[in-house]
Write a structure and sequence with these properties.
2 copies of one chain form a homodimer.
Chain A lengths: L1 H7 L3 H9 L8 H14 L5 H8 L4 E6 L9 H13 L3 E6 L4 H13 L5 E4 L5 E2 L10 E4 L2 E2 L5 E5 L1 H14 L5 E5 L8 H16 L9 E3 L4 H13 L6 E4 L2 H13 L9 E3 L17 E2 L3 H13 L8 E4 L3 E2 L12
Parallel strand pairs in A: 1-2, 1-3, 3-5, 4-6, 5-7, 7-13, 8-9, 8-10, 10-11
Antiparallel strand pairs in A: 12-14
Helix pairs in contact in A: 1-2, 1-3, 5-11, 7-8, 9-10
Chain A binds a DNA duplex (30 and 30 nucleotides) through α2 and α4.
DNA sequence: TTGATCCAGTTATACGAATAACTGACTAAA
DNA sequence: TTTAGTCAGTTATTCGTATAACTGGATCAA
């Protein structure tokens, strides 16, 4: 900047003031042109560190994830966060800890030494987690999870509404016997499992249907369980006309079971998934109707909470999982 | 740091020298203890910007990708880069441009204003690309792609060797009629397609086998083509005993075709894939024997080239794709 | 004519750390 | 006793930017 000032024949302060044009038309057009020309001629680029040193806060946001980057379907969460940050000219300083608490603490420390404007603390799957202590005093947001202590603002998918909408989609198509192949036993308190189940029950209840325990199964979330339970359900005396699989991998297993039974989807049984797994759901035959986890939107929202003026409180913000309509749902056979 | 110095009753310079302990045992143990105590008491954390301002280079590496973060199987590339960077205490400043050249230029500019130690320029798939001009003068490495101009060092998968190893794996199992379902027509100059094909031919040639053009098909890389070509191949008068699918998605299609034909894998036909797509290959029945793109290793290596003392030259460094053995390969039926 | 106000800049300083160069006290060799 | 050398720190300066406070001249209202 000194060089620019020298080249333009003005003082360093003038260059700074012209470039940041804060003081409106304080300088003559002539002077401003001289400065701009010198800047271009020298290819001057401001030193962000000097600026930060002066201003106290960097144009960067820290992003800490356990394994977000390697979780196939969650990379989008970084994408969303970065997009939103860039809209305000900020960059993302990212770290994947892989769950290593020591690395987490150390890298967080380094981030703070870089005076990041805030920290996004992302979980690879929706759960209740404990936020590292070092985050107190720093503006931060928990992403795709919830702060167990309820102190830090959190952004997570609305699992209940997702489960509700899934069941609702099938009810609206005319189904009355709707099975659920859930992700995991409810004892785990996995919000995805608990929430989607709750939404499913709510939708059935609203439709005046009794919950049939025979139609609800709990697996591990793997496709083997999807296969096993779909097989059981479809070979039982009173099979369902539709299955809501609480994750796409389970749905894949269900597809295989239905195929092995020489039945067709959606002719013999409608299937709704959850997750909209990009490498799976669109490629199944028929394409799987499912719900998308709003990774991009959540990433955006988390950064937005950091950028906003007001200090965010410990609220949990739940975001809608949009329905991705494909071809695995139709009316049940009995329906006219 | 001034506060620490005041609390410890020494000068700021002393604090700095003690903390960086560069000058060995220059200070008495007593003084050093005073300083350490004050640091702990005040929770002092160094200001990275002041340090960078003084030293000229930040402890950060820029990572620019077109869509790496959203490409499901390539998130690992960031993971690898970040791991290696952290081993030297550096953080990654990441940006996904989504192919937007304007965003790319602007964010690169911001990165440079942060005095990054170097820039990793990653492509989402292996291709020849043009490096942005702004990178000249900055230490940089092209990752998962190659600099068309050959000026910037590049790290990419060894496609030829990969194709060779795949064909070799089948030859070693005793196969002599080995089909290839390639990713794309060769006109595209896609290194993955060209290279894997070349390796395939080389292996056949070494084994003294003539290349049968009927056994080589070129598709789009989608599973529909895998299905279509596998169906054609297996229903022809002289079907292959093994198929090398140059990508896992194609292999998936082939699986479906084989299943529809009431044939079994690997009993009736062995299949080898490529990519080791995490959400697919392990979950197929039987598990798909395939080759892994060394994303983590490549990410690590790219950062290593940036960190090493010597300025990297424009060489292309090709990295091995390891064989992931599962259950889709066995001896051909004719073999004893 | 005088004081107030505006104009178009400049000067001086702070941000926080690293380090070259210095200091004053003590020790050891000649 | 002088001189050189070590020890344990301190002083002063640098990095690049933003901005508060200032300056000297012109304009304007009373």
């Amino acid at each position: 900047m000194h060089d620019v000032a020298a080249a333009a024949g003005v003082s360093q302060a003038t260059v700074s003031l012209v470039l940041n044009s804060a003081s409106g038309s304080r300088f003559s057009e002539e002077t401003r042109k001289k400065v701009r020309d010198a800047v271009n001629r020298l290819g001057y680029r401001t030193n962000a560190h000097a600026k930060t040193l002066r201003e106290g806060v960097a144009g960067m946001i820290g992003f800490i994830g356990d394994t977000v980057a390697t979780t196939p379907f969650a990379g989008a969460i970084i994408e969303g966060a970065q997009q939103r940050a860039w809209e305000d000219g900020l960059l993302l300083l990212t770290v994947n800890t892989g769950g290593d608490k020591e690395l987490e603490a150390a890298s967080l420390d380094t981030m703070l030494s870089y005076k990041v404007a805030g920290v996004v603390y992302a979980g690879m799957y929706h759960r209740r987690l404990d936020v590292p202590e070092a985050l107190t005093g720093v503006r931060s947001v928990v992403l795709n999870s919830q702060d167990r202590a309820g102190r830090v603002a959190s952004v997570a998918p609305d699992e209940v509404k997702g489960g509700y909408s899934a069941a609702r989609r099938l009810l609206d198509a005319g189904h009355r016997r709707i099975a659920l192949i859930n992700i995991e036993s409810l004892e785990s308190e996995l919000p995805a499992a608990v929430g989607r189940y709750e939404g499913y029950r709510k939708a059935l209840d609203e439709a005046g249907l009794e919950l049939d325990p025979d139609l609800v199964r709990f697996g591990t979330g793997g496709e083997e369980d999807g296969y096993k339970y779909a097989m059981e359900l479809m070979t039982s005396g009173n099979p369902p006309t539709a299955i809501f699989c609480a994750n796409d991998r389970g749905a894949w297993g269900a597809y295989q079971a239905v195929s092995d039974l020489r039945l067709s989807i959606p002719g013999d049984v409608s299937i709704v998934g959850f997750d909209n797994q990009a490498t799976l759901a669109p490629f199944l035959r028929p394409g799987l109707t499912t719900f998308e986890l709003p990774f991009v939107a959540m990433g955006r929202r988390a950064v937005e909470l950091i950028l906003q003026d007001a200090e965010p409180d410990g609220r949990v913000e739940l975001m809608d999982c949009p329905l991705i309509e494909r071809n695995s749902v139709t009316h049940p056979k009995e329906m006219p």
